[in-house]
Specification:
The chain is an alpha/beta fold. It has helices at 23-41, 62-72, 75-86, and strands spanning 7-9, 47-49, 90-92, 97-98, 104-105. It has one domain (7-105). The protein has 3 helices and 5 strands; from the N terminus they run βαβααβββ. The protein has a 3-stranded parallel β-sheet with strand order 1-2-3, with helices on one face. Helix 1 runs parallel beside helix 3 (75-86). The radius of gyration is 15 Å and the shape is globular. The N and C termini lie far apart (35 Å). The relative contact order is 0.20.
């Protein structure tokens, strides 16, 4: 017997502004993704797939990106996990993360 799974994909451009590297930048990104998730959650998907590095600001230079990622830490993945839990779903979130040895991985 087949187990049907509903998958939603979100192909969204991240904000093109440069909000700097403060907590406000992380909060703005979470707010941005709240709006994107609202577009698909009414369909009650089992899995939501977001673009690779979907939480980056393209306007950041290399130094700003690194500072933003260090500040961001797990805040966005924690937010995505809370959305998934609340809606009994999974979210595929490929993001740049710093691992224990200090290197960055996707």
């Amino acid at each position: 017997m087949a187990n049907h799974v509903k998958i939603s994909t979100i192909a969204a451009k991240t904000p093109t502004t440069n909000p700097g590297t403060s907590q406000d930048a992380v909060d703005q990104m979470i707010h941005y993704w709240q709006g994107r998730f609202a577009q698909v959650l009414s369909d009650q998907p089992d899995l939501i797939v977001v673009p690779e590095c979907c939480d980056r600001y393209p306007a950041h230079n290399a130094e700003e990106s690194q500072a933003y990622y260090q500040l961001r830490g797990t805040q966005i993945s924690d937010y995505f996990a809370s959305v998934a839990r609340q809606h009994q779903s999974y979210i595929a979130y490929p993001a740049l993360r710093q691992i224990e040895d200090g290197s960055w991985r996707t």
